[in-house]
Amino acid sequence: xKLVKSLLLGSAAGIAAVAGAQAADLPSRKAAxxxxxxxxxxxxxxxxxxxxxxxxxxxxxxxxxxYTFGERWSRAQDSYGTRARGRIYIDARTATAYGTLRTFxxxxxxxxxxxxxxxxxxxxxxxxxxxxxxxxDSGLFLDKAFVQFGPITxxxxxxxxxxxxxxxGFSVVRTSDRYPNLLAYTATFGSGFSATISxxxxxxxxxxPFAAVAPFSAAYEGQTYPDVVASLRVDQGWGxxxxxxxxxxxxxxxxxxxxxxxxxxxxxxGGVKINLxxxxxxxxxxxxxxxxxxxxxYLGWNGSGNSGFGRVATFSPNNAYxxxxxxxxxxxxxxxxxxxxxxxWMPTLRSDFIGSYSEVxxxxxxxxxxxxxxxxxxxxxxxxxxxxxxxxxxxxxPVSGLDIGVEVLYSRMEFKNRIxxxxxxxxxxxxxxxxxxxxxxxxxxxxxxx
Length: 450
Hints:
Porin
């Protein structure tokens, strides 16, 4: 029995020795090292290194829910509107020998109804349009897409003419807030001073870059070159200041006599942003003023977005119009002033106070005071609108990145000559004309940024 046991143990030991020798002859494969995502602190919070590269990336976005309420104008119009908007953006930056290489892309997707489809300066229930009274989906909208390489900016970006671009508040005021396709060069001089020259394509902002108007008609002659925008800016601890100007071709065509011109439109603007930490941390005041001749879109008039005459009309002013008596093309001039103040009552509670006043001269297509058989004659009377917009809100920030707030906006428009009362027109019955009108709009917003 002892002999059998010894033979078995010996055999097992031999097999183990042979197996160990064979295993030693096999090649060894070690697991690949794991490359963990590293935080990038060079460009602020939220950036991380793309594994295997020296590029820092930040991915963020926003979800916004809004509800607006205003005066109902007819049975065909809604007295409220709702909006849901989703936003996603990617910001990639790489340090190079020539400066930072930055690529930025931002997309918005929106579903809205009711008052949000009517337009007007406060995007509330101000302008009636039966064709857009239902629900509308904007689809995938490219808000920004640009490359910055050292001093060069190329792509779709904020216009270098803009300063206060509706930074505060839920609603818009009469100011320039544009995202054209552009090609710009920025020179920095130290101590926060910089200067920029930019070639900007106004067609990509949704506005009309031309002036060609006759009674009830218009024509487009095309552009011969993009707008040239220049700005001088300073950014320091106390705040910022900027002086900007724009000049561009504005082809005009008089459909009454066939005359055409290659007019040049221009706009100038100055603004200052003042930090007020002595009041509360984060308090900021914007003050801005501008003037334009045949380029009134640079003051927020003409085109899409916050254009139009509020609820008293359903059109936007052009850069020029044809005088019905002389047949001459007159350019439109405009000026505006803007103020915006943000105050923190406490770290989690703030208010914005916004306002703008603007006047436009030589704007036609209105109602002439004469009547035939008791009815007004429609023609090309000069309207020369004057507009006031003021608003205020209260926003609660219970946690970082979440805003819950309410806002009230008041807008008033006055005209040089009488214009048809849009409310009376849509209700039916005799035509009534007015020289001024106003509107209140309320809005609730819940927004999460991440």
